Amino acid sequence: MANEKDLNKQRFDREAAASLVKELRTTFASGKTKSYEWRVAQLKGIARMVYEKENELVEVLHKDLSKPETESHVTEISMVKTACKHALKDLKKWMKPEKVNGSILTFPSSSEIVSEPLGVTLVIAPWNYPFLLAIDPVIGAIAAGNCVVLKPSEISPATSSFFMEFLKEYVDRSAIRVVEGAVDETSALLEQKWDKIFYTGNGKVGRIIMAAAAKHLTPVVLELGGKSPLVVDANINLQVAARRIVAGKWGSNNGQTCVSPDYIITTKTFAATLIDALKNTLEQFFGKDPLQSKDMSRIVNSNHFARLTRLLDEDNVSSKIIHGGERDEKRLYISPTILLDAPEDSQIMNEEIFGPLLPIVTVDKVEDSFDVINSRSKPLAAYIFTNDKRLEGEFVRTVSAGGILINDTIIHLANANLPFGGVGESGTGSYHGKFSFEAFSHKKAVLHRGFGGDAPMRYPPYTPAKQRLLKALLEGSIYGIILALIGWPRA
């Protein structure tokens, strides 16, 4: 007999997708996912899966991306553990209705905001952090009390198979499901009506997701990307800065990260000093032959390898390489590569790189970098290294980005108290911690009244005296209310 995975691959079409959604809507209608106890049980199940299958997770991440074990733990496994702990610790507080102030127009009354689950939700995951970026939104959807379908990325097949094989052992399968596949399966899912779609990936697919969602007026969270800039001032601890830049660019999935520094902006006078520091740090981290380093992830597949190669081989770009550029097509490795002042109209300066290539743009003075950044689409992240508080403040005020980090790279993702999301073309909506819970919740306004305090002035016929009092109440004029109550001015 074919197993569930084989049946899923063979038969998952529009009809199967519709059947799945119908099944989950029946589960949601039963009300069981709304209980605190159910939510906690599912979150504990995911946490238990991570602990019990930790070795398997390291193996599948290495199969998909050759991720070093330490990197897999730091950037994926440990962050999922933390997300589960955070949700379990604070879930009761998140679910509690929020009391809000009343209004003189509704007096006497009490008001509150009640968080309710949206219903049946869809999470479409990317390949670059195939475990973290798949299960983290699912944690938010479960915490909020929803049914959820997870569609892992087919580009990371080992991790996708892991979810298909193991997730059902740890969670309630009547409410939480996995669908494997590629374009056809995703298209079948997108034809259905969902109560929320959460997508992490690129802008091209993001537009397809949004167009499909619009047919059903389905709200979306789109976690996209863009060209995240990194500004480097001269008055810094260069040794620390270089380590943090290299770690954020090449030490985090070899540049295949949505918040990876996409290009550096620094002054013409400081560029050579910065480049030397980056070269020295790269050698310290990955050795003289980085293609042989065991501490660097590979390019995910041959298509992305070819795409990155085209960026480097474009006319007037290859001559701008000042470090690296070596390639091993068979093993899908490209060494850490630095370019200086690549042409503004080149592809590498206009497309999100998503790989181990780092252009450096030079300007006359560091303040000019703000104009360079603001001339482009709003990025998912923006970084600045400086000891100048005035410059730091101007950067925060002037640059619009999903998130900003001062004197470091990418680690703002680790703070669950900060929302993570894009702005403009880098995405819409946010998540992490309580923001994940809110992303999958509806904030329902609730006003409570008794039968006392029924003011005749709200009902017809509207006499001049009633009109004066109503106008004063609507305008919030205490003086007007007093005058109306004492009958002044008289009709």
From TrEMBL:
Task: List, alphabetically, the GO terms of the cellular component aspect.
Answer: cytoplasm
Q: Note the InterPro entries from the entry.
A: Ald_DH/histidinol_DH (IPR016161), Ald_DH_C (IPR016163), Ald_DH_CS_GLU (IPR029510), Ald_DH_N (IPR016162), Aldehyde_DH_dom (IPR015590), Aldehyde_DH_NAD(P) (IPR012394)
Superkingdom classification of source: Eukaryota
- GO biological process, alphabetically ordered: aldehyde metabolic process; response to abscisic acid
List the catalytic activities from the record. Answer: an aldehyde + NAD(+) + H2O = a carboxylate + NADH + 2 H(+)
Q: Does the keyword Oxidoreductase apply?
A: yes
User: Where in the sequence is the active site?
Assistant: 223, 258
Domain Aldehyde dehydrogenase intervals: 11-446
* GO MF annotation list: aldehyde dehydrogenase (NAD+) activity
- Could you say which protein family the record assigns here? Belongs to the aldehyde dehydrogenase family.
Looking up PANTHER family in the UniProt record yields: ALDEHYDE DEHYDROGENASE (PTHR43570), ALDEHYDE DEHYDROGENASE TYPE III, ISOFORM Q (PTHR43570:SF16)
Q: What name has this protein been given in UniProt?
A: Aldehyde dehydrogenase
